[in-house]
Amino acid sequence: QGTAAMATAPAGLYQALGEKPGITRLMDDFVNRVVKDPRIGGHFKDVKPAALKESLTDQICQLSGGPCKYEGADMKSAHADMDINKGHFNALVEVLQSAMDAQGIPFAQQNRLLALLAPMHRDVITIR
Ligand code: HEM
Fold first, then answer.
1. Could you tell me if 122 and 4 are in contact, meaning their C-beta atoms sit under 8 angstroms apart?
2. Is a pLDDT exceeding 50 seen at residue 69?
3. Which of 14, 65, 71, 80 has the smallest count of CB within 10 Å of its CB?
């Protein structure tokens, strides 16, 4: 991931997300919601959900302070040529919030994860 993504994980976030099993469940539900979302589902029409779930699980696990290593593409390369605008980015964040609600993740912990993801907008949004 890009340098902007390499913020320090707040203590206890990995645990609050339910560690690897909780993050796996969260990303499973999140991707299922994303592909169905009318605002951004189209971006994912040619994507294999299982592989994306695995990449995201590793990324969020590592980012939140867990013992994982994300080995996928950096955020800039992963999202190049996708015509992602601010509305798409915000829609994805909204879907993530719904998925975190569904997993019973406390609001304050949700915000700690979102704060780690927010700086990635610089690499993900390509239409300004
Ligand atoms: C903070 C926001 C985001 C994060 C952290 C994120 C993270 C990721 C990660 C980790 C991958 C996998 C890359 C790999 O395995 O090499 C990925 C792929 C992808 N992302 Fe994002 N993403 C974000 C926002 C978005 C948005 C807003 C869209 C479009 C609406 C989007 C569309 C995609 C698509 C279509 C892929 C699949 C690429 C492929 O497999 O060819 N992402 N993203």
1. yes
2. yes
3. 71
